[in-house]
Amino acid sequence: MEILITGGTTFVSKYAAEYFISKGTDVTVINRGSRPQVAGVTLINCDRAALGDRLKGKHYDLVLDVTAYTEEDIKTLVNSGISFDDYVFISSSAVYPETNPQPFTEEQICGYNSVWRDYGINKLKAERYLEANVPNAYILRPPYFYGVYENLYREAFPFDCAMRDRPFYLPQNGDMKLQFFNVFDLCRFVEVLTDKHPENHIFNVGNKDIVTVKEWVELCYRAVGKTAEFISVSKDTPQRDYFCFYDYEYELCVSRQNGLLPDTVPLEQGLKEEFEWYRNNLDSIYNRKPYFEYIDNYLVKK
What we know:
Layout lengths: L1 E5 L4 H12 L3 E6 L10 E4 L13 E7 L5 H8 L4 E8 L27 H16 L4 E4 L2 E3 L9 H8 L4 E4 L5 E2 L1 E3 H14 L5 E3 L6 E2 H12 L5 E4 L21 H6 L6 H12 L12 H9 L3
Parallel strand pairs: 1-2, 1-4, 2-3, 4-5, 5-6, 6-11, 7-10, 8-13
Antiparallel strand pairs: 9-12
């Protein structure tokens, strides 16, 4: 089997490249060669916006498109002269307006989300171009990804708090709900799609179990081997100045996914695996946020 993966050097796309190579698959990646490549991949060294003839005449069993953020990203790849059997696009739950009833279902109307703004609208335009031009493609709408190779400052923040024996400054009482999806389960689900070719082509993906912010932090501390101590922060304090998620709660209905992949990695297990990787790769975080500085300057009682 031959797979083309867009990206291949950070988080989701890097994990996917390693996963499919471990399955004996021939993996080709498209990226600019600015970071180390996964061992065993074939590199097409270019920006996806400037493919030229690099993919002309090439055929892949699967295109796994992790890095498309706009309609133009999809258009450039689909019209590059490439042919393929399956196409899986990693879209986003940001395509659902926050005013929709929850949990969000695949049948709901999509549109502008005031939290995610242009990001969600651009993902939606990419989806619509794909649906119009590659009707047999699969579109996946995840919540928050987590797992090995995470390069955003999310789980790493409570991990850092735990490793430094710091209390955790919790937004209000910590009852805001979060939903996650492990990158391992993403790869498993892609395998299911290409094997079974289900009739539905749009899937919400994610754990069926929802956790509160407080529960998530407790699991992160537990992964480090510590117990979380909490300090409540009032709603008047801008949440993104000291915490790694927006003040936005949503839930995806994942019953379609569960019909094909009923078991997903338990969050506690997945966080332990992520921490074991993170503790040996502390420099892996892209754009580490200054949460500690804000907490120490504005929230710690002198």
